[in-house]
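Incident log, support desk, overnight shift.

02:14 A customer reports that sequence design results differ from what the structure should imply. Their input is reproduced verbatim below. On-call engineer (initials T.W.) acknowledged and began investigating.
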């Protein structure tokens, strides 16, 4: 049985290149985003040290809270949190109600994971400010969100209730209450009430409107959410959260063009996208099959992130998709090399599956080329890193099948599908063994029908299923699959399968035409040989059935002289039968 040579372009796996995206929300008033330092570490530390000298010189002339704060900030930039806190405390000594110093101390404590110390200082802030509502509301956020190991949600809500009693019209406090209900109590309905209240007090308070959109999105009302996110952007065209939330909504709805347009609009507004959404632009270009733009986008991004293996993988996908297979394979190899370098010498690896996708793609290319050494090497690497990897099991099965260890190959295919039934490549390889070697046509049919139920309606799955139907005697079912394709649109594999159906149903002249067309169009020499061998085999069967033994002998001899293939055993068996008939 012929299977279509696996076209890597159909299966190569892109990755986003960053963490999974999700809706963003804003518990309190947003602050200006901190700029990312684009200069190198040496220059950065030189800059900090120079600033430190100037600041300390000013301190020697006159101690002032502002100068002490500047020195503390510089120590924070250097990562010396304890020294930073020392200077912030000195600022508080000079000015006991200096709130920025307390907030900096909190930031330093939280960054240093000193939650107990952070709690202590925040309670001090509450005392200094006489529990002002705006401070209470910040404290509630701190209690609810920062202390991840010991979240005290009820205390946070209690503090918010106190703040609301002091100022019932404080829309920021009310928004924060909704935020905690939405994200920590998982009370979507309750959160909507608070976000609506906040918006009713200030109908231009974008944080509450954005958060209300997130709540509607989570409750399954994307239409309402879309309108809210758009209204935020109308109020404040620089509000990045709603751009990203709108893009998230569109991606979830598979509206990739709208998602891309939203992110590009944010970029044109000179907004800084989160790392996730910055990388999503390239992914969206790929989903829209706009490879002409995706290729330069990834090339530029690689210049910015030279050690990002995921970017190389995606660039490889783009190259493959436009037929630049050599460049694509080189990118996959580069991605895998960077990943191997990253994990070299490390123990207890906790690897995200995305980083193995370049190896998956290398394995796919090895299958296409019948490069057994590379196929084995890739399968071994994947399973060494991730011993229960479904795609690794598939690649090992593919290797064993090509080494004619068919029972072992089936074992690995079964393992692969047990872990992840959506590994598309398993189905044609597994069904090939079931149909062509085991002659278990019903098992092959069941397997492939299951693939179609999963949504794999690609031609190569349908080709193998039609083959199994024909060999199992279900000609009508095979015909139903094949008639979906017009003759001038048939891939060569389906053309050969249609030729087989014609021979099995007595339409030999049509069968000859379909096989001729298939053999002309197959790019792979291997597939040309297999198609030719089956064609001669079918003609030999026809002559044998009609007792034209000499003609049958000519056809089976032609089949025998072709390079060995998966149907060579069938050819040998038929040859023996024909020779017996001639001898008799």
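02:41 Re-run completed on a clean worker. Output:
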């Amino acid at each position: 049985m012929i299977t279509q040579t696996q076209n890597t372009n159909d299966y190569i796996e892109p990755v986003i290149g960053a963490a999974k995206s999700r809706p963003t929300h804003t518990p309190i008033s947003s602050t200006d985003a901190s700029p990312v330092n684009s200069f190198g570490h040496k220059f950065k530390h030189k800059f900090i040290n120079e600033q430190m000298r100037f600041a300390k010189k000013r301190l020697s002339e006159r101690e002032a809270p502002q100068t002490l704060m500047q020195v503390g900030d510089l120590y924070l930039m250097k990562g010396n949190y304890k020294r930073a806190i020392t200077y912030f405390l000195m600022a508080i000594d000079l000015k006991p109600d200096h709130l920025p110093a307390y907030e900096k101390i909190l930031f330093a404590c939280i960054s240093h994971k000193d939650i107990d110390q952070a709690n202590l200082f925040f309670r001090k802030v509450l005392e200094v400010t006489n529990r002002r509502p705006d401070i209470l509301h910040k404290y509630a956020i701190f209690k609810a969100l920062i202390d991840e190991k010991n979240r005290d949600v009820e205390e946070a809500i209690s503090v918010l209730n106190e703040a609301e009693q002091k100022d019932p019209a404080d829309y920021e406090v009310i928004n924060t209450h909704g935020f905690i209900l939405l994200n920590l109590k998982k009370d979507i309905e309750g959160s909507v009430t608070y976000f609506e209240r906040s918006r009713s007090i200030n109908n231009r308070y974008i944080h509450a409107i954005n958060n209300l959109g997130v709540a509607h999105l989570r409750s399954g009302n994307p239409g309402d959410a879309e309108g809210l996110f758009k209204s935020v952007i109308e109020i404040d065209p620089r509000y990045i959260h709603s751009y990203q939330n709108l893009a998230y909504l569109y991606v979830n709805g598979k509206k990739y063009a709208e998602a891309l347009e939203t992110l590009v609009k944010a970029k044109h507004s000179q907004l800084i996208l989160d790392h996730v959404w910055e990388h999503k632009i390239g992914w969206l270009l790929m989903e829209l099959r706009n490879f002409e733009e995706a290729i330069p986008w990834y090339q530029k991004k690689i210049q910015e992130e030279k050690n990002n293996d995921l970017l190389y993988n995606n660039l490889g996908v783009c190259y493959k998709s436009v037929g630049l297979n050599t460049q694509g394979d080189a990118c996959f190899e580069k991605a895998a090399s960077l990943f191997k370098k990253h994990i070299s010498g490390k123990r207890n690896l906790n690897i995200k599956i995305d980083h193995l996708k370049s190896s998956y793609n290398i394995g796919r290319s090895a299958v296409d080329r019948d490069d057994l050494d590379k196929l084995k090497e890739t399968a071994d690497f994947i399973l060494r890193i991730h011993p229960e990897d479904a795609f690794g099991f598939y690649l090992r099965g593919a290797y064993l099948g090509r080494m004619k260890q068919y029972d072992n190959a089936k074992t690995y295919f079964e393992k692969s599908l047990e872990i992840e039934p959506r590994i598309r490549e398993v189905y044609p390889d597994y069904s090939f063994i079931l149909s062509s070697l085991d002659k278990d046509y019903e098992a092959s049919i069941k397997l492939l029908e299951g693939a179609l139920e999963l949504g794999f309606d690609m031609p190569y799955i349908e080709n193998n299923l039609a083959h199994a139907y024909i060999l199992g005697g279900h000609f009508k079912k095979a015909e139903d699959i094949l008639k979906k394709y017009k003759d001038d649109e048939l891939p060569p594999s389906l053309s050969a399968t249609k030729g087989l159906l014609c021979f099995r149903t007595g339409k030999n002249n049509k069968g000859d035409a379909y096989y001729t067309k298939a053999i002309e169009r197959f790019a792979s020499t291997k597939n040309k040989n297999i198609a030719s061998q089956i064609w001669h085999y079918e003609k030999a069967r026809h002559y044998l059935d009609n007792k034209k033994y000499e003609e049958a002998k000519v056809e089976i001899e032609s089949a025998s002289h072709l390079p060995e293939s998966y149907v060579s055993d069938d050819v040998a068996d038929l040859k023996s039968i024909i020779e017996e008939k001639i001898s008799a």
